[in-house]
Amino acid sequence: MWAWQVRRPGPMVDGPLERVRTAAPRPRSCELLLAVSACGVCRTDLHIAEGDLPVHRPDVVPGHEVVGRVVEVGADVADDFAVGDRVGIAWLRHTCRTCRYCRRGDENLCPDSRYTGWDDDGGYAEFATVPAAFAHHLPDGYSDSELAPLLCAGIIGYRSLQRVDLPPGGRLGLYGFGGSAHITAQVALAGGAEVHVMTRDPRARELALALGAASVQGAADPPPVPLDSAILFAPAGELVPAACQALDRGGTCVVAGIHLSDIPPLNYQRELFYERQIRSVTSNTRQDARAFLDFAAGHHIEVTTPQYALGDADRALTDLSAGRIAGAAVLLV
User: Which range of residues forms the domain containing residue 111?
Assistant: First the structure.
């Protein structure tokens, strides 16, 4: 099969990815083998390719928003999946299930967790495997390319909304408006929120307004009203003070990314006093994923998906790095 591997982590201009011809993976007894049809291009893939995240597996195949058809079912897999099923592979692919975090329902904090496209090969390839316990049934009414970004951009945005303590009808600020934010905005709007978007990209501002945002402005500009909650999707720590300053009393700022540049010193009076707080998001649980996919089944989400062929994965990540993508890019196999 054809696949992309992260051979030399570093800036995209230096060509960290290499397209290779390799044997298709074989599923273990607890796994499914999928023929990949679409794979989302996530900023986490970019962080792995460029070395912002440490190497967990040399020459790993990136990609963790994978949609495909089951072509082989492991001998120990229950009857939940069959050959021909359309199935999704997401970021989280293994937890120990016995540590105190797993036992209390916080499997996203498991010290032995493993991740698709970082610890194990992902979806920048023609075939991929997934443990059946971490595979996802997908809602009808979406194309494969629309479904792919839901499997990380959508799920992590959904978890961020759970972490941000947005009151009913509250004012939500979104800092950065890429793949995850444009999905999260729709979930928040469906729940009655008033959404304000801060982004430097003119195309992203147009998309935000088209989706129903109440206002759009520059990345660090103050919104027109105090915010009850804010989610930082841009991997830019320098935006944390601006987001905190925009919060009303008692507001919460959630940092949604797996990687963030350094946060500058915070001024207690301007940015934290009046019980404002900052929270992080770490991966997601399978329950988060299933709850979000159930939501997507009942509320059709408009997913903006610039499309690339699998053979152009390096160009897709280069465009993402350069800020040339509005929405959530997808590789089609």
Answer: 2-152+283-332
Model pLDDT, residue 66: 98
Name the CA dihedral angle for 50, 173, 158, 251, rounded to a multiple of 10 degrees.
Answer: 110
288 three-class SS: helix
What is the number of domains present in the chain? 2
Taking only the tens place, the pLDDT of each residue in 150-173 is 999 999 999 999 999 999 999 999
Residue spans of the chain under pLDDT 70? none
In a 3-state reduction of DSSP, which class is residue 115?
strand
Q: Give how far Cα 296 sits from Cα of 205, 240, 291, Å.
A: 24, 30, 9
Buried b (16+ CB within 10 A) or exposed e, 20-45: eeeeebebeebbbbbebbbbbbbbbb
Q: Are residues 221 and 210 in the same domain?
A: yes
Helix spans in 236-275 (H): 240-246
Structure tokens at 246: 């925009």
pLDDT tens across 244-257, in order? 999 999 999 999 99
Q: Which of 35, 2, 20 is nearest to 128 (CA)?
A: 35
- Nearest partner of 34 among 6, 4, 72, 63, judged by Cα: 72
Measured CA to CA, the distance from residue 212 to residue 191 in angstroms comes to 13
Same domain, yes or no: 255 and 298: no
Percentage, residues of the chain above pLDDT 70: 100
Q: Residue 4, CB half-sphere, CA atoms under 13 Å: how many?
A: 30
Look at residues 100, 98, 131 and name the one whose alpha carbon lies nearest to residue 116. 131
pTM of the model: 0.95
pLDDT at residue number 79 = 87
Contacts of 148 (CB under 8 A, 6+ apart): 38, 39, 40, 65, 66, 67, 88, 305, 328, 330
What residue has token string 């841009």?
234
- Structure-block tokens of residue 45: 């893939």
